[in-house]
């Protein structure tokens, strides 16, 4: 992973072509690499329009989410899943074996044998479940990876294209842009909220207002994303191992920083204070899915997730994460070196360390 690698200058009009090329890529691993690169290009383009000091935007974060998705798409986390599944399956199987022997009235001397037999059966069953579920998870995660880019990425490309036009950027003109956003879903009000706050961030002159508006835009965008990803997330995490996967496997990197969703969000920094009265309706709406954490308290105790399939737990964690690291430089860093990004653009696997 590189340090502050700058994205190549991509004409605004070509962003949609880059996205379409990534969505059409048939190779799952290369598709994920292209999607990650597209999020980086979108993050850079949106950052230019929001202005200096706005902090991380949704696509800055999506870079690292997509990069983490690549681990499952490549099934690089299969060994850890097998180890965890083996331990749990062996213990549960042993207990079941002991219970069955007791119900059948076996002599006490047979309990060790029953436990051993149960453990072997539980181990074999668990390993089979893990192997099949990881293959299914890889397919679902890739589908979700594509969905996010198609659903939000294309609209962001249209947004930055619209902002680059010479026409005056006024709330009245913004209404025309918002009117062309997709409709017909239960969460159709979330993307308009996201782009409205990004528009406010672009117009804001003070750092505090710019950061707060960008942060709110990020929250609405990621909420929209997670509503859309709900079937993929639940399908990728079988019911019987959801808590185990949340506790043991859901770790991700932001540049050199490693975090785990099963641990409370650390607090390295907080957003600059800004007048919250104008954002009261937006904050109230966000609190309806995350709780009070969206206000950005000085402590994020209790933000750890126990079951990642529950959207309230996901949003509680993610909103806190976005708040805590909004101005941290590593969030906006490149996921790969310049040479690796160029290789991905050319449709090749990059060389060097990129896993």
Put the structure in a nutshell.
With 355 residues, this protein is an all-alpha fold.
Shape, per Cα inertia axes = globular
Specify Rg, calculated over alpha carbons: 23 Å
Count of domains: 1
Strand order of the largest sheet: 1-2
| Helix/sheet category | mainly alpha
Order of helices and strands: HHHHHHHHHEEHHH
| Mean pLDDT score | 80
Proportion in β-strands: under 5%
Describe this structure in words.
The chain has a two-stranded antiparallel sheet with strand order 1-2. Helix 2 (28-50) runs antiparallel to helix 3 and helix 5 (111-163) packs across helix 8. The chain starts with 14 loop residues before the first helix and ends in a 10-residue tail after the last helix. It has one domain. By secondary structure, it is an all-alpha fold. The chain has helices at 15-24, 28-50, 58-73, 78-103, 111-163, 171-179, 190-203, 207-236, 242-248, 280-290, 311-324, 338-345, and strands at 251-254, 257-260.
């Amino acid at each position: 992973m590189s340090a502050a690698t700058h994205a190549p200058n991509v004409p605004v009009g070509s962003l949609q072509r880059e996205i379409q090329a990534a969505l059409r890529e048939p190779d799952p691993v290369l598709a994920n690499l292209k999607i990650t690169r597209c999020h980086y290009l979108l993050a850079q383009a949106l950052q230019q329009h929001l202005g200096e000091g706005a902090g991380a935007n949704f696509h800055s974060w999506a870079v690292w989410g997509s990069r983490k998705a690549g681990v499952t798409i490549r099934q690089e986390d299969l060994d850890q899943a097998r180890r965890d599944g083996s331990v749990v399956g062996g213990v549960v199987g042993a207990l079941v074996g002991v219970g069955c022997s007791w119900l059948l009235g076996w002599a006490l001397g047979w309990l060790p044998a029953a436990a051993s037999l149960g453990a072997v059966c539980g181990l074999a069953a668990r390993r089979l479940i893990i192997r099949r579920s990881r293959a299914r998870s890889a397919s679902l995660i890739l589908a979700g990876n594509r969905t996010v880019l198609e659903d939000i990425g294309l609209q962001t490309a249209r947004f930055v294209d619209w902002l680059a036009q010479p026409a005056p950027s006024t709330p009245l003109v913004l209404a025309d842009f918002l009117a062309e956003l997709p409709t017909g879903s239960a969460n159709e009000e979330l993307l308009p909220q996201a782009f409205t706050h990004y528009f406010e961030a672009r117009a804001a002159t003070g750092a505090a207002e710019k950061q707060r508006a960008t942060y709110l835009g990020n929250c609405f965008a990621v909420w929209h994303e997670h509503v859309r990803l709900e079937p993929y997330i639940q399908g990728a995490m079988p019911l019987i191992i959801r808590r185990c996967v949340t506790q043991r496997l859901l770790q991700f990197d932001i540049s050199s920083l490693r975090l785990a969703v099963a641990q409370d969000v650390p607090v390295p920094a907080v957003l600059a204070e800004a007048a919250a009265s104008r954002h009261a309706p937006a904050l109230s709406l966000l609190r309806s899915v995350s709780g009070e954490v969206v206000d950005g308290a000085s402590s994020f105790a209790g933000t750890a997730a126990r079951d990642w399939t529950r959207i309230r737990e996901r949003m509680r964690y993610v909103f806190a994460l976005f708040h805590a690291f909004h101005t941290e430089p590593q969030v906006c860093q490149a996921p790969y070196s310049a040479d690796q990004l160029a290789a991905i653009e050319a449709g090749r696997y990059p060389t060097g360390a990129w896993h």
